[in-house]
Predict the 3D structure of the following.
Amino acid sequence: MRKYLIGALALLTVLLSGCGYNQIQSQDEQVISSWSEVLNQYQRRADLIPNLVSTVKGEAKFEQDTLTKVVEARAKATSIQATPELVNNPEAFQKFQQAQGQLTSALSRLLVVSENYPSLRANQGFRDLQAQLEGTENRITVARNRYIKSVQEYNVTIRSFPSNLTAMIFGYKAKANFTVENEKELATPPSVSFDTPAAK
């Protein structure tokens, strides 16, 4: 009886070592870590917006509709509970993508419209905020690309034999990823110009 028990344990050890469980765990943690970085960069952008809006408000005749859209888009984007579990819910993930995409569009519009206001473009504080925003948009793109790669690796693992059996037993499902259409939209950072009025 003892020989059978030892044999069963040895067989179980061999099966578990080749089942991909540890690989799934490692890749799941990598997805969570990558997602946290995406959220961190989106939060950085959201934190810059109040200062940007405040600076733009100083321009007496600036288009209020443009400012309102930025404020509303930021409110919508930050109202979504962006937890690590969001990546396991495709519908919630899509809403998050849409909200961030709307914020990107609103910011792009604000920066394009600001080109019509030479005194605003000459404002050093505004130019500094533009530079910070541009850097943040680049960081968002990098973080999102890392997330996309980590999700791809995870999803391939849980769909490949024999680790797909382990994933099925332990309830691991494919994680949501940025879609190609949204990725193109989101990967376009706002146009930022550092032009200053010509010296007189």
About this structure: The CA atoms of residues 52 and 61 lie 16 Å apart. The chain has one domain: 21-77+94-186. The two ends are 97 Å apart (CA to CA). The longest helix spans residues 21-57.
